[in-house]
Design goal:
Layout (H helix, E strand, L loop, with lengths): L1 H22 L2 H8 L7 H18 L5 H16 L7 H17 L3 H8 L25 H4 L3 H11 L16 H9 L4 E3 L2 E3 L4
Antiparallel strand pairs: 1-2
Length: about 200
């Protein structure tokens, strides 16, 4: 019974440690505030915290690299965010160290270390409102796409199109096909055929 109680105690305390660390993680908060996770960004952040807690509690002998991969993938999938400020390795290192310390009942030491974290408001709770700024859609990148495609046709239409295939050979060359297309823009004018350029 004592072991089960200790396990429950460990899970409860480790949960608080995870919450403390995640609440202090600036990048996660910024991702939520900048609308990277959409309207439900805060909820998603809470889910990432829950998942990380479950992962740590549910697996023995996790390496820092494994945990790092899990959190990086979650941040990438859910927030489209890559943290290159070394915050994820730092978080993983602390989580695994505190997990080990918690299993050894070294709560006073953990408490002392966590008290050194900057005092911040707990925001990873459904009852706390986080204001977020939606990211504007990047509209400018699509505008240039169509421009280049149209210019190429004109240059090749300048080549003299008559010489390509002797009439009656039955072979339709590329430039004849182009000519036919171009003649859709034809404007008859007293017996003349005017092919208008774009």
């Amino acid at each position: 019974m004592a072991a089960a109680t200790q396990q429950t105690e460990f899970q409860k305390n480790f949960r608080l440690i995870v919450e403390k660390i995640f609440n202090n993680w600036q990048n996660l908060r910024l991702a939520v505030e900048h609308g990277m996770g959409g309207r439900n960004g805060q909820q998603v952040a809470i889910q990432i915290m829950d998942y990380t807690y479950q992962y740590c509690v549910g697996n023995e002998n996790i390496t820092q690299g494994e945990l790092q991969e899990v959190i990086e993938e979650l941040m990438d999938q859910e927030f489209n965010t890559l943290c290159d400020d070394n915050s994820i390795p730092e978080i993983c290192r602390n989580l695994l160290r505190y997990k080990q310390m918690a299993q050894l009942n070294q709560y006073p030491e953990i408490e002392t270390e966590l008290s050194k974290l900057p005092p911040g408001k707990e925001w990873l709770r459904p009852d706390v409102k986080v204001t977020y700024t939606p990211v504007d859609g990047d509209s400018s990148s699509d505008d240039d796409m169509d421009e280049d495609g149209d210019d190429n046709d004109d240059d090749e239409m300048d080549e003299s199109e008559e010489e390509e295939a002797p009439s009656g050979s039955g072979r339709v060359t590329r430039s004849q096909t182009r000519k036919q297309k171009a003649e859709e823009f034809v404007e008859p004018e007293d017996g003349w055929t005017t092919v208008r350029r774009k």
